Q: What sequence folds into this?
């Protein structure tokens, strides 16, 4: 007799959320495209409250923007270190969407001083900040 098979969608949401926190962001993004249920879980507060988007050269700026747009209301920690290939205006727009961010890391992002001032003026909750 064959062992019963288990579909990923049959796992409890709590287990899926826990698994998703260990996946790299490009994998979470791809997974979010597979079903409406997984899309909701991939952008759950538990998964995206601490978002590390640094060094994913294979992702386009549009994918970065989509990830931020889908998760901005939950992001508390945002790491865009070494995203030097993203245009400064794109980085600025993405960060400004994240109104709950308390930790922001922008090392090696091509931001000008006026963009940094704009980000810090609009995001009053920032307590930890790094840039270069």
A:
């Amino acid at each position: 007799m064959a062992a019963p098979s288990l579909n990923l969608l049959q796992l409890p949401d709590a287990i899926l959320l826990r698994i998703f926190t260990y996946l790299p962001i490009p994998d979470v993004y791809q997974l979010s495209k597979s079903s409406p249920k997984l899309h909701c879980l991939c952008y759950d507060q538990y998964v995206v409250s601490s978002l590390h988007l640094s060094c994913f050269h294979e992702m386009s700026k549009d994918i970065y923007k989509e990830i931020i747009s889908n998760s901005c209301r939950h992001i508390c920690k945002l790491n865009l270190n070494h995203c030097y290939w993203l245009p400064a205006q794109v980085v600025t727009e993405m960060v400004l969407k994240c109104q709950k961010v308390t930790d922001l890391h922008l090392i090696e992002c091509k931001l000008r001083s006026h963009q940094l001032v704009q980000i810090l003026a609009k995001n009053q909750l920032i307590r930890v900040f790094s840039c270069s």
Q: What stands out?
A: Residues 11-131 form a domain with the Leucine-rich repeat, LRR (right-handed beta-alpha superhelix) fold (CATH 3.80.10.10). The chain has one domain: 11-131. The beta strands are 50-52, 77-79, 103-106, 128-131. The chain has seven helices and four strands.
